[in-house]
């Protein structure tokens, strides 16, 4: 998709833009956390690192279509293995969906990862989100394992998917 790019973002400079995007994409946020987005959701987007990693291991991007923030992406470098990237979130503004922006965004992530010699990309999909499962499989991701919710988790069963690069 011409003109689409991933632009690095920071919490200090972009938290309000990210919050505004989450308000536009309330459908997914509500599915994940059970209520409309809050500033805590935005804080966790920027700060929630997987076990064994720190915020220094996180990459945050805005999906930009020209001057418009069409989405956000968070990636954890080195999770679960040193040469893997874990895609923690790809959240797209509903106004931009259905035009190939999701596929183009995944293509940009794959290009960026390949340039960094990443071996594979991984992510988890909420079992309650079959459209996302279908999308990620179309992007070349394959089921890796099924993760049942635990008493300490957010209550969602998930599929972990992987894509070798």
* Helix count from the secondary structure assignment: 5
Placed side by side, the strands forming the largest sheet appear as 1-2-3-4-5-7-6
CATH architecture: 3-Layer(aba) Sandwich
Span of the ends, CA to CA: 21 Å
Overall number of domains? 1
Count of β-strands: 7
The residue fraction in helices comes out at 25-40%
Instruction: Give the CA-based shape.
Output: globular
Uncertain regions spanning at least 5 consecutive residues: none
CATH class: Alpha Beta
Q: Note the beta-strand portion.
A: 25-35%
Q: Quaternary status of these chains?
A: single chain
Going by CATH, the homologous superfamily would be Gcn5-related N-acetyltransferase (GNAT)
CATH fold descriptor? Aminopeptidase
The biggest beta sheet, please?
Answer: 7 strands, mixed
Chain-averaged pLDDT: 93
Element pattern in H and E: EHHHEEEHEHEE
């Amino acid at each position: 998709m011409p003109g689409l790019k991933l632009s690095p973002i920071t919490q200090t400079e972009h938290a309000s833009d990210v919050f505004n995007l989450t308000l536009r994409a309330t459908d997914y946020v509500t599915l994940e956390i059970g209520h409309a987005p809050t500033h805590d959701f935005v804080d966790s987007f920027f700060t929630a690192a997987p076990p064994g990693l720190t915020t220094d291991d996180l990459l945050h991007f805005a999906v930009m279509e020209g001057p418009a923030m069409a989405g956000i992406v968070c990636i954890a470098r080195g999770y679960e293995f040193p040469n893997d990237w874990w895609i923690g979130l790809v959240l797209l503004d509903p106004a931009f969906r259905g035009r190939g922006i999701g596929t183009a965004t995944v293509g940009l992530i794959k290009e960026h990862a390949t340039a960094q010699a990443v071996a594979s990309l991984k992510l988890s999909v909420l079992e309650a989100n079959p459209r996302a499962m279908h999308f990620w499989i179309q992007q070349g991701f394959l089921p890796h394992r099924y993760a049942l919710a635990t008493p300490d988790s957010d209550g969602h069963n998930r599929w972990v998917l992987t894509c070798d690069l």
